[in-house]
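Hello,

Our lab assistant flagged a job as stuck in the queue for most of the afternoon. It eventually completed. Since we weren't sure the result was trustworthy after the delay, we are filing this so someone can double-check. Below is the sequence as submitted and the structure that was eventually returned. Let us know if re-running is recommended.
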Amino acid sequence: MTVLVVSGTGTEIGKTVVTAAVAAASQDRRVAVLKPAQTGLAPGEPGDAAEVARLAGAHVTAVELARFPEPLAPETAARRAGLPPVRPYEIAEAAQKLATEHDLVLVEGAGGLLVRYDGEGSTLADAARLLAAPVLVVAPAGLGTLNATALTAEALRTRGLECPGVVVGSMPADADLASRCNLDDLPVAAGAPLLGVLPAGAGSLGPADFRAGAASWLAPELGGHRRPG
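-- returned structure --
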């Protein structure tokens, strides 16, 4: 698995922290994280790729292809800024180049799987298809996540894309009934195994504590040692 695309069922559900955890659990590998389109930040502000590198460690190379100042979908943000959008082939070319110099390339999308990147309606799924890369799905823990996860998984299947599994991006310490039940039900909705559960607030940990905990949050398929249950 040289290139792994990290998408999700929506925005603000923990994709960046999950990406950082996968990178942190790969300390013995050269890792690159690619953020095709960073929105909602001014020039000079640290973006998601930089945050992954900060949390995961010095073995991570952070790359950002484009930045748009307004916190909108990539296509909308690019259009309003009068800047060229990011095309799927550009994402694929950048990831392929990084793959020649790194053992693992993590491509973190913006928002959900089918968010538009350009005026033609291209999405992260189109880039994943060009790369023939699997797509890890990040999902929230609570009520409503099963439907969104099932829709994302169905969109991947109809495009011939592999989903190696689903990761819960933020699990509250005092999880409610729905969140607890969803640990059993998410694999059914996704048609793929549960490969990780990150505790709420993981991204607020100091880098050393984050790296120490990352492997315990992820299944062996993602470099960790978490077991089902």
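-- support follow-up --
The delay was a queue issue, not a problem with the job. The result is valid. Residues 10 and 112 are 4 Å apart (CA to CA). The helical segments are 15-24, 48-56, 74-81, 88-99, 124-131, 145-158, 177-190, 207-217.
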